[in-house]
């Protein structure tokens, strides 16, 4: 799975720590999502969706091997 979390976060001028606080996770979790080491749960994805004001599939996309 591919994501544009880092880009979306930059558009809102948020640090990893600030985004983490907004959705109730650690900064390390945000880093792990951005580097594709962690696939977020549905709940976490929906929380990110709310922060970005976009649908989940606008910042998470499937790749051929998924």
TrEMBL record:
The keyword Heme does not apply. It comes from the Bacteria. One of its GO terms (molecular function) is DNA binding. Keywords: DNA-binding. The lineage of its organism: Bacteria, Pseudomonadati, Bacteroidota, Flavobacteriia, Flavobacteriales. This is Putative transcriptional regulator. Transmembrane segments: none annotated. SMART domains: HTH_XRE (SM00530).
């Amino acid at each position: 799975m591919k994501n544009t979390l880092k880009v979306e976060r930059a558009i809102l001028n948020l640090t990893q720590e600030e985004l983490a606080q907004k959705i109730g996770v650690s900064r390390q979790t945000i880093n792990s999502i951005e580097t594709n080491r962690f696939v977020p749960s549905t709940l976490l994805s929906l929380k990110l969706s709310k922060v970005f004001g976009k649908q989940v599939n606008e910042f998470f996309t499937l790749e051929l091997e998924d």
